[in-house]
Amino acid sequence: RNMSSAGPEGRKKMRECHGLIDSLVYYIQGAIADHEPNDKATENCVCILHNLSYQLEIELPESYAQSIYMQRRNISNSDKTPGCFGTRSRKVKEKQQDTPLPEEKSNPRGVESLWHSTLIRIYLSLIAKSTRNYTQEASLGALQNLTAGTGPMPFAVAQTVVQKANGLPSIRTMLHVSHPTVKKTAVSLLRNLSRNTSLQNDIAREVLPDLVSILPESVPVSDIECETTTSICYTLYNLTQSNSHNARLLLSADGLPKIIAISMNDSNMFSKASRAASVLLYSLWAHTDLHSAYKK
């Protein structure tokens, strides 16, 4: 577990180690089957897999990169530059939606297991069944890592989480836990998932009212709450930017007074959350059909 967080070279060596990833997955599967998702060894295993999934898209071996990412050659470097709102340009988004999903192997081995639907379902199972905060956080964090990129693999993982494995109810539960880091990681995962336009309606229907409910009534009081609030605002921005129905859903969940209060903070310490709330307000105002509702 310690070695898996030692940087790119350490991750590379561990991913290449014959049988290591397979053994970790095998152990966790056994623990879940035996109804023992809370033991320390399971926590260690999932934390290792979480670390090995970090920067996976960038650090994939050349052989995988060639077979899975041939489609990416058409995306120019300028298109891949993140926009000022922390989301990709519409052109890249549209290109991502048109990209064919990578084909899954029925019997993955080694590094292939890291993005396979079998392991994604294991993470979701641990999120639902484990009561250990580190296990919950590592499972959410692994999914966050796997959905963080711009290529077909992160898109396929997001599709699996939301539509094939029905993972949103388990993630939604994590929004209401008392542990601040678990909550922050759950929100960061939802922020990644919400960038996929084909999943936005499902996400809004399932978790938008919950996201509004955990927004603070005013300026966040700690760094971690500030980060969580910022991520919530950008997730809501993704969900409502091109969807008037989702903007109305935010309005009916009484989100507007909270967002206005957060946006009005001018303290440097929490300006990130304030800026995110302002970006969200600006985007919401673009829905001209909702102006009279906003004014009320």
From TrEMBL:
Extent of Basic and acidic residues compositional bias: 94-107
Keyword hit for RNA-binding: no
Protein name per its UniProtKB record: PKP2 protein
Disordered: region residues: 79-109
UniProt main location, coarse: other
Subcellular location: Cell junction
Gene behind this protein: Pkp2
Alphabetically ordered keywords of this record: Cell adhesion, Cell junction, Repeat
Similarity-based family: Belongs to the beta-catenin family.
Recorded GO CC terms: adherens junction; cytoplasm; intercalated disc; nucleus; plasma membrane
InterPro entries in the record: ARM-like (IPR011989), ARM-type_fold (IPR016024), Armadillo (IPR000225), Plakophilin/d_Catenin (IPR028435)
GO biological processes: cell-cell adhesion; desmosome organization; heart development; intermediate filament bundle assembly; protein localization to plasma membrane
Organism expressing this protein natively: Urocolius indicus
